[in-house]
Model the fold of this input.
Amino acid sequence: MKKKYIETIDKKVKAKRSFNTTVSLVIRNVRNLYRNSVLGIIWTVLNPLLFMIVISLVFSMLLNRHSADGLYFPVFILSGLTVFNLFSNSTTTALQSLVTNYGLLTKTRIAPEIFPVANVLSSVVNFFFSFLALCIVMLIFLHKEGVGFHLTMLMTFFPYLPAYILFCCGVSFILSTTYVYFRDIKHIYSVFKKLLYYLTPVFYSFSLIEGHATAKTVMMINPLYHYVTYFRSLLMGQVPSLLSHVIIYAWGIGMFFIGYVIFHFSKKKIPLYI
Done:
């Protein structure tokens, strides 16, 4: 009985230590991102805004595009960027997280899983700043086509984000493990991200490819397509269908499970290869 009590206390202490370490790493990552910048964390709002302005100028003025899928074009673009950047930033930083934190990994008793998860959570913090930028843009273009503040936007925090975070964590587990054994994955993944970016309807409407069966099929099996369209539905005041909920959670839970299994069976050998 006493032994079980001690084990329970020990588990609670480890859980508290892991939580505190994760919070510390998230704070450190966010601070380091813009440490030497004059504007600092303000860039998390300015970056998507500036990129949105450039893309909007190209499509709205030069190509005469003012809306897509029933949503005013600047909001359409920024919403897609907000979702895609969470995935891109979290997985890119998590990829090298085990190698860059080699000292902490080998000299302390910190669980290795904390490092990729902390990078994902750091990107989630940036997501909230990008979401703020999106709200500012929506306020500027209020009453434009499809633009308005709806209660469905609260579904961004639940059930949307938990599913997306699980998905990002799963991919991060796979990438961070692979990078330990195969450093070239960094360059391969950089090319893959560009391909994924163009396969995700960030700045173009899904209706543009409806006549192309192959392109439509490829788009439908792209998990980011479902996360982007789900998020845009919330912005337009639409509650996504039950199928949409099932899809984003199937991708999230499935990818997390696969990633965690790969990571779990590799973590004991990781310090030997770093």
Observations:
- Residues 3 and 9 are 10 Å apart (CA to CA).
